[in-house]
Each structure stands twice: as C-alpha cells, then as structure tokens.
Amino acid sequence: MDINLLVKLTARAWSLPILAHLNRGVPGRQAPLLAATGAGRTAFAASLAHLAQLGLLERNPGHGHPLRPEFRLTATGQEAAAMAARLIGTVSGTAQDALLRRSWTVPILALTGQPRRFSAIRSDLSPITDRALSVSLKQLEDHDWLRRDLDLSQRVPFPIYSAANLGAELNRAIGLEGG
Fold this sequence. Notes:
The protein has 179 residues and is mainly α.
C-alpha cells in the first residue's frame, strides 16, 4: 500500500475499524458491522461509501440470502483489511484507540519509522496543511507515539520526528514500503 492510498483510507474515521472487523470475520452486513464498530449510522454509512469508492469494498452481487454478506472485500481491500486488523489489534484495550481514528495519525506514523523533518513529512503528505500537521504531531507527541528531537548538527537547529513506543509498533504494523 502506498502513502496516497493510506491518506485516502484514513480520511474517514471508521474506515480502519470496518476493514479490521471484516478481516476478523464479522459478517459483511450492515447491522453486525455497525454493532461491532460502535459507530454512528451516518458516519458508518459515509465510511462504507468511502471504502467502496476507493475500491477496497464492494457490494456482493449474490446478496439476498441471509447467509450471504452484503459487502465483501476486494483483492486490494483484503491487503488493507489485514493492515487495519494489525493496527486495531495493537491499540485495542487502550484508551488511545480514538487517536487512531484521526485523519493524519496513521499516515504520519507510517512516515516516521525513520527520523524525519517537518518539511519532509509535509511534502510526502501533500494535501496536509501546516496547521493540521503541527496539531497532529503535537497530539502524537503528547500520547508518546512520536518523539521530537532537535538536530543540532546544522547551523540552525531543527526538530526531527520519529515514531516511538506504541507509535513504533504501529509503524511496523502498517508495513508501508519505504516508510
């Protein structure tokens, strides 16, 4: 999975939980998925439509029988669902799972497996604004998912960000090529 698809995937709060539950075997029908995720109906429906638009989820053409799922994963969706299950499994049981549903958390953690400058992160996440990146970095740092160090080797010192603690585990769970 590339960083652009990861950014699009995490644009909706419930996309990762839906994919994770489908990967774990929750039936691909709206009621069981809605109960498993705990999402509101409107946000859930928007996330389902978003996943279908990305080509990760499709309506099952054989739906109609009570045992046939209404939604099923595509081939690309199966890869994304496995990654989502790893991510959700890493934070399950902690009070920090809401942070994982925020738009920029997963893409930032995917890029900070190696120490990165603010400008390098911003250039790889092209649609992000400086403010959104700053706020996201601060939140991740406050939860100890990200470490901020100062590089004093240059004439003008600058901060370098790298995934730490649970953030480093999440980075490994994402498994982004080149991240």
